[in-house]
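Morning. Coffee machine broken again, so started the prediction first thing and wrote up yesterday's gels while waiting. Chain of 473 residues, entered below exactly as on the submission form.
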Amino acid sequence: MKITDIETGHNAPSAKDIQALEQRLHGALVRPGGAGYDTARRVYNAQHDRRPALIVQAVDVADVMAGVTFAGEHDLPLAVRGGGHSVPGFGTCDDGLVLSLERMRGIRVDPGSHRARAEGGCTWADLNHATAAFGLATTGGIVSTTGIAGLTLGGGLGHLARRCGLTCDNLVSADLVTAEGRFLTCCEGRHEELFWAIRGGGGNFGVVTSFEYRLHEVANILGGPTFYPLEAGVLQAYRELIAEAPEALGAILGITLAPPLPFVPEAWHGRPIVVVLTCWSGPVGEDDAIRERLGRLGPVLGQAVQRMPYPVINTLFDELLPAGLHHYWKGCFSRELSDAAIAVHLDFGSRLPCPQTATLLFPIDGACQRVAPEATAFAYREATFATALGPSWPDARDSEANIAWGRAYYQALRPHSQAGGYVNFMSADDTERVAANYRQNHDRLVALKTRFDPNNRFRLNHNIAPGAPSDTA
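Came back before lunch.
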C-alpha cells in the first residue's frame, strides 16, 4: 500500500508502521487492492461508497485496542463498524481506518440469571437465536441484520419496548476500549459515568466490545402485519389503541405501499396503506381479543397475525430492506399523535416515492417512561412515539427526489413534534440537532466527552464534541 492512500499529515504511517500493525493483529488487515477489499469496505447503505486506507477486521479485544491506538498515533479518521447498518455511513470513511467488529460475534447466555453477553459485532439475528433457545429475549431491532452495538448505544427501540423498556434500559454492563486504547468494564458501581453515557450517547465514548443484557421471558408471540387503507380514522384509532393497550402489546405503525402479498387484495398492491405490525407477548388466551381489537382500527385489507417464535417477528422487514439499497432517514419524538400530525402523514403517505420507503411510528410509552430522563443519556422519556421517516430506494439516480421528499416531510412534521429525535434515525446532515437530541443531558455528555475523548477520536458519529458545553434545547 502507498502512503499516498492515507490522508496526509505529520504522523502519517509508514509502510513499516503498517506492517507492524498487521503483525500485532490476530484478525486481518485489509488494504486497497488486496483480496476482499471491495467486500470489506461495503456497508448496508449504498449511498456511502467510500474507500478506507486500512480495514482492521478485529477478532478480539486486543485487535480493537491495537486499531484504536494506531489511528490515534497517526491522526487517522477512525470509523467503528458493528453490524454496518449506520444510515449516515458512520461505519466507513475515506482515507482512514475502519475498525470492523463484524467477526466478533460470540454470545453466552446464562438462563439462570436471565443474562446474556454478546460481542460487539453481533446482529439481532445472532442474539435472538441464542436467547430464544431458553425462551428469553430483550428489546431489539426490527430488522434482524441490524447490529446490536449501534442500536443499543443510541437507545434501542423495538417490539418489546412497551413491556421491557429500551434496549439500553436492559444493558447491565459493557466492555469498552477508550480513545487512549484502555480497556474498561462499565456498569453500576464501576465507571458509572461512562455507563450512563453509552446508554443513549452513541459511539462517542469508545468502542464497546461486548454488551451484557438483562433478558425477559419471551418465547412464542402473536405477531404479524395487519393492513388498512391510508385513512385518518385508522391513525386515530391506532392512537387510542396505544393509549389503552396492555404493555405486552407491541404495535408499530407503518405507512408504505402495499406489498404484493397473497393475503392483500391485488387491487391494493402498490397503493399507499397503513400497516400495524403486532407483537403480543401476553397470554395465549387473549390472542383472539388482540385480533378483535386490531379489527376495530379500520377496514382490514389483509392480515397475517399468528403465533410464532419471537425471533421471527424481527425478520419480517428483512426481505423488504436488504443490503445495497440507498437510504436517507429523519426522525422526531412526539408526546402525542395529533390530528395535525396525522394530516401531514396522510399528505406525504399519499405520495410515497418508492416501494421500499416507509414511515414508522414506534410506541415508547409503558416501561420506557418509567425510567427517569436523567437516568441514562436517552433524554426523551415523556415521548409517546418515535417517528422514523425512511426513504429507501434501489437506484442511485433517484436519490435527489427521495431525499427531497424526506426533508420536506420532516419539515412539515416539525411544528407537531418535539425539538429532538432519536439519534439512530438521524442522517449525516442532522449535526445541528445533537444538542436538542440530548437536551437536559447534553452538558453532562459534553463534560464526559472532554474527559474521555478530548481529541474527538470518536467523531464519526452524531458527534458530541468536546469542549465548552453548548446551549441545549
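The chain is about 25% helix and 20% strand. Going to sketch it on the whiteboard this afternoon.
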